[in-house]
């Protein structure tokens, strides 16, 4: 299997992307890593080039403040666009980028292409939960507006993903709402509820945002506007909690001693909430596997994104979703 990495995308590019790619190449010799970017900048940073890693030259870069669609259309030789083209042309089986999220979505739609039967692809990151299993949430930002039928497709794609990539035989699907009662919510959730209830998935009903981190469902379905607000709120809350704890535990000698005692437990707690452990968020509904890594991804996050892509390819994620959407399969 061949996995293309946008070497120039992300806050720490290209250094961390190269390091993560090298670690992944050493860890999984059955994967061919294709580093896409400016050869003149990449090769001097590589002390070694494993036999299963190669560089694909790309002379341009999609910048963080570029207008997504214009950048994809005008910068034909940008590392992100070239990686997408490798997937489109069958020269790579998957691509990973920590670059401009909007541009990656545009690359997915305009370069890789949408899967037949899918109206709107969905961005589906894993949200950490207290039980350590996480919840796959979609859509968390690919589309600001959605219809009940879109949410149904999100639910089916999410169910297939958790089954194929994480091995869950009967993923629990929840609909993000303001209450657990069936008739709660706005027109979108009221319209989606009966569709999810009749779909060949394990639908557990409405889920309130306060319960998401408790792990009461395996797949959380929502529109991109609400989902992105949920994600940013959780990220901001987690960051604030750790910032306040750090201030409190360094405020006096006694608190520093207490911090020393609690440090192992706090480290485990922080690891549970660390996005780097999950690697990346798949953009589900495309005609190829596309993963979005966090903008501040380090080498560990890039390596974990490769692991994630490898598992998805081994289990034919894209083919399985296509079969479910076309009615040829049965969702667990």
In brief:
The protein is built from eleven helices and twelve strands. The protein has 332 residues and is of the alpha/beta class.
Give a structural overview.
The protein is an alpha/beta fold. It has 2 domains: 1-118 and 285-318, Isopropylmalate Dehydrogenase (3-Layer(aba) Sandwich), CATH 3.40.718.10; 122-279, Isopropylmalate Dehydrogenase (3-Layer(aba) Sandwich), CATH 3.40.718. It contains 11 helices and 12 strands. The protein has helices spanning 15-27, 39-42, 68-74, 79-88, 101-112, 148-166, 187-198, 224-249, 253-272, 299-314, 317-325; strands spanning 2-6, 32-37, 53-57, 94-97, 122-123, 126-127, 135-138, 172-177, 202-208, 219-221, 280-284, 289-293. The strands form 2 sheets. Strands 3-2-1-4-12-11-5 form a 7-stranded mixed beta sheet, with helices on both faces. Helix 1 crosses helix 10, helix 6 (148-166) packs across helix 7 and helix 6 (148-166) runs antiparallel to helix 11 (317-325). The protein starts with a strand and ends in a 7-residue tail after the last helix.
